[in-house]
Amino acid sequence: MPASQLVSSFNAGELSPYMDVRSDVEKYASGCRMLENFITLPYGGVYRRPGTEYLGKAKYADRQCRLIGFNFSTTTRFVIEMGDLYLRFWSNGVQVMNPSNPSLPLEVASPYPDGRVRQVQYVQINDVMYFTHPMHEPQKLVRNADDNWSFAPVVWDWPATLDENITNTTITPSGQTGTITLTASSSIFTSGNVGGYFVIGHRVRGNAYVEKKLNGDSGWSSTLTVFGRWEFTTFGKWNGVVTIERQINGGQWEAIRTYRSAELGERNVSATGTETKQCLMRINWNPAVAGTDNPNSRLEVADNRIWGFVKVTNVTIPPGQTSGTVATATVQSALAETLATTLWAEGAFSDRRGHARAVSLHEGRIFYAGTAYRPLSLWGSVIDDFQNFRRTSLDDGGLFYSLSAKEANAVQWMESQGELIIGTSGDEWTIGSSDADSALTPTNVRAQRQSSYGSMFLSAAIVNDVILFVQRRGRKIRELVYSFEKDGWVAPDLTVLAEHVTAGEIVEVAYQQQPDAIYWAVRGDGQLIGMTYERDQNVVGWHRHTTQGTFESVATIYGVGTGDEVWLSVRRRINGEDVRYIERFRPDFRETFDAQDKPNWWYLDCGKRYSVGSPQATFTGLSHLEGAEVDFLADGAASPSRTVAGGSVTLQAAAERVLVGLRYESRLKPMRLEMVLQDGSSRGRIKRVHRLIASLYKSLGGQFSTDGQEWNWFYSREMSTPMDASPPVFTGDKEVHAAGDYSDSGDVLIRQNQPFPLTLLALVAKMDTYGD
Fold first, then answer.
1. CB 92 within 8 A of CB 79
2. Where are the alpha helices (DSSP H) in 127-263?
């Protein structure tokens, strides 16, 4: 029985083998059993992925590295190579070199060994990045200039702390500044406190306020140390000017409030204010005439505790003990006294308590979360003061909050999307203000659990107006999106129809916005997978990518053309040895494809292009492919393969514009061609595909098969095409004779292994079907 099956779309991507019989599912008709080195288009078709451009070697051939995108603007962007205890930088396709020694790459030291770089999270604020890792103190990367970067631990203006001490244990500091000794009344210090912080306070004794008589004597009151809220009042009858002053940088004084009375009347001033930084204040009096009824003014603090903080540099532990009572520290902010005090708090981040796993920026605050000691706690900075976590009664003060969860599942990631979205290893949460019309403040916090899927440690990605995150165990990608029907957030599984594509576990992710929205991920086995994602068009299509080697890292940055740049760290086997290269998908592939600019196509991996003034056959400078069999695109035409020897190759014929690189094969296999016949389903019947109609777009070459063994070209060279020229690009429907054998499946396979593009928009299979 003759039949014809139209496959009008492939944008459901590669589907799970478990979907093989689910022809009743909507996505089945537009899915593939195999989609390798093809990328799905949101419109329905697929195009061959671009080849990769060789940019240079990673620092170490025997250790993996991670790539991180750094976008300062659409025109100023970098890729950071983070490897074993170092950072290097790439920009505009080349490595940033050391200005002091241009023969060496610019490099800064890092605390992260290669085995930990994948667990590093970061947030960028203009030309600054803050980094976290659960085993290292937070770090700060600063771009001072394109060839001047610094990377060092964050220097806190005020550190994040644990809860204030509520025991009777005291700490006695030996001094107020410099290097001091801390002596505790019980053993509270361990070696893990070294590098961490303690905040130490004292109550102000006898100087919680200052006064100034408002009579005939002009001048100043004594000074008062103030942090937080203060109150000012006057009494009696006075005539003159009274001013509240604050000491600013350099010891100068500035007036912050001024009050005048023109006669000896009762002007009872009652004013309040708040100081967000610790400072000295005083009252200044300039009389007009002497006052009566003993006029007076008073400036007092609402909280009479003065705080400072220290960084621990050493801990003395007696033999046989694990903790001690004595520590050496460097004062970072002066202490008020040297008396014993129960007013102290331990720093939140230390080797003892663990360091933050996650970091994010939300409503002008930087947030850290997920320490080993407080896995569900978050610390938010003072607004627009990202290294100050001092908690006050002010709305813009530092913020500390702990999720009230049933299980102590650590925070894995945070993202700002209207509210602060939080993924723990067991749940997904949102944190916002209790009042929807107000900002998030220390006293206005509401946390809600939204789902309970759990997350892996990888950072989430904001894609348009939703958040994509990797579920615990690294096998599922979930889409966290607000549901008006639920009046809350839901997290559907985006791999539900393609569970197999994440085999080997996802270890890195990146998001490309242009020219098509693609969520990229690296698997633990070295495959690169991508998900074309256009939720408004109901497009979620997975595709797999392979190369002669393994992909180890992926990052994206803004591009100069029509699309974002996708950078890759690739491990290859070259000349019998493992190497690690920094490569990227050729950025201008879409422009050269659209323009049918054949000499500038890029469909080879680890490629290098040559442009010479006159035709030549031998090309050097290929030591990165020593001993490898390479293919060529020579003046827009394929040339026979050669093996690189001594860093050079010789083409069969001379050419001016030559691309040299490694071959990769793009393969597509639609879902089973199932159809409803007059007497029932075609499944289980004998089929033979005898003709195909392929709708191609700006394509050259390409082959088809019905059994995966015998391959035929979609079209051959026309007699009118000169033998020394590349055939023309083809757009339209190409009908070919398949001459397939009878089988149960009636398969169709498409591939491209030449250095040419292949874009398949639709496919029609004409079959004969037999059996009942």
1. no
2. none
| Residue 110, phi then psi, degrees to nearest 5 | -135, 150
Q: Is the dihedral of CA 215, 216, 218, 223 positive or negative?
A: negative
Listed in order, strand segments (DSSP E) in 146-252 are 148-153, 171-173, 179-184, 197-203, 209-213, 219-220, 224-247
- Sequence-distant (6+) residues with CB within 8 A of 299 are 209, 210, 211, 221, 224, 230, 231, 232, 244, 281, 282, 283
Could you tell me how far CA 30 lies from the centroid of its own chain? 32
Q: Which amino acid is residue 51, in one-letter code?
A: G
Burial class (CB in 10 A: 0-12, 13-18, 19+), 569: buried
Stated length of the chain: 772
Separation between Cα atoms, residue 600 and residue 617, nearest integer Å: 18
For residue 66, give the nearest of 20, 120, 111 by alpha carbon: 120
pLDDT for 509 beyond 60: yes
Tokens found for residue 201: 């306070």
Percent of the chain predicted with pLDDT > 70 = 94
* Residue 578 amino acid letter: D
Burial of 94 (0-12, 13-18, 19+ CB in 10 A): exposed
pLDDT of residue 412: 97
* Whether residue 164 has pLDDT greater than 90: yes
Q: What is the mean pLDDT of residues 602-630?
A: 97
| Distance between CA atoms of residues 74 and 645, nearest Å | 41
Residue 54 tokens read as 């060789």
pLDDT digits (tens, 9 = 90+) for 165-220: 999 999 999 999 999 999 999 999 999 999 999 999 988 665 688 999 988 778 99
Task: Give the up-direction half-sphere exposure of residue 421: CA atoms within 13 A in the CB hemisphere.
Answer: 26
Q: What is the mean pLDDT of residues 326-331?
A: 98
| DSSP alpha helix (H) spans, 603-672 | none
Q: Show Cβ contacts of residue 771 under 8 Å, excluding neighbours closer than 6 positions.
A: 684, 685, 686
Torsional class of 352: left (φ above 0), alpha (ψ -120 to 50), beta (otherwise): alpha
* Bridge-based pairing state of the strands 703-705 and 686-699: unpaired
Helices (H) and strands (E) in the chain, counts: 1, 60
> What are the C-alpha distances in Å from 571 to residues 525, 549, 579, 605?
12, 6, 6, 12
Distance, CA of 464 to CA of 539 (rounded, Å): 14
The helix (run of H) or strand (run of E) holding residue 594 is helix 589-594
Residue 639, phi-psi category: left (phi > 0), alpha (psi -120 to 50), beta (remainder) = beta
Which of 280-284, 561-565, 689-693, 725-729 has the least mean pLDDT? 725-729
Q: Whole-angstrom Cα distance, residue 31 to residue 22?
A: 11
Higher-pLDDT residue of 434 and 759 is: 759
Q: Residue 673 pLDDT more than 90?
A: no
DSSP, collapsed to helix, strand or coil, labels residue 561 as: coil
What DSSP character marks residue 167? Answer: S
Q: Tell whether the model's pLDDT for residue 679 goes beyond 60.
A: no
User: What DSSP letter does each residue of 493-507 carry, written as one string?
Assistant: BTTTT-GGGGTT-EE
Cβ atoms of 200 and 343 closer than 8 Å = yes
- Give 363-385 as a DSSP string: TTEEEEE--SSSTTEEEEPBTTB
Question: Distance between CA 200 and CA 195 in Å, rounded?
Answer: 16
pLDDT attached to residue 721: 63
Tokens encoding 437: 């019309």
Report which residue type is found at 443: T
542, two tokens:
């997975």
Which residue, chain included where needed, has tokens 């003061």?
Answer: 385
Phi-psi bin for 497: left (phi > 0), alpha (psi -120 to 50), beta?
alpha
Using alpha carbons, select from 754, 729, 561 the residue that is nearest to residue 661: 754
